[in-house]
Amino acid sequence: MRHRNAGIKLNRTSSHRKAMFRNMVTSLFKHERIRTTDAKAKEIRRWADKLVTLAKRGDLHARRQALSIIREKDVVHKLFEEAPQRFAQVNGGYTRVVKIGFRPGDAAPLSMVELVTPEVKKKKTRRKKKAKKAAAFSATAAPAEAKEAPAAPPETEEGPQADRETAAVESTTLDAPAAKTAAEETPAAAETEAAAAEPSEAEAAPEAKQEADAPAATDEPAAEETSKKES
Asked: Into how many domains does the chain fold?
């Protein structure tokens, strides 16, 4: 029964096992990666995560606890300077174990233990998107309004008078040809109307002859009647 007994023994005494893991974790923080067997790699992660947590805390007591495990002071100083910035966004998962094959002598499975630099995820803000959409909409709406309603030129005091004068000049220039054509057409129209009203000489001559002959024709019976009465 292994109640309340964490960790692996690795067929070593406790002093030998602790010294080995202290050397391994010192090399891990010094070189940021080491190669060892799978069993040792899984156990060294526990030691490394504990030391990174102490480094993120950063007080004097944490530094002394780290110095009791890590063999070199320079490695402790490096860890306490880099860990708060490097692992500030994550809680746990500071190391990675990658299997790399088997050892040539005894075919023991080997793994690579290395420190992980987590990627910081940027939070997307909705306000910025809404602001960008509003700016894009206003930019597209402004040219459309400018096309639909072009800006009128500012009117000056002399502007309306100049417009009236130009309009009057244009009206006179446009009406002048029409007046000329009307003046040219009016004499011809008057002549045609006069000719239509007065009959021609050829038409008037027969009418005059008929009027002259009419009384003569009417007077002959009257003369005959008077002659008969006298006889």
From this structure: 2
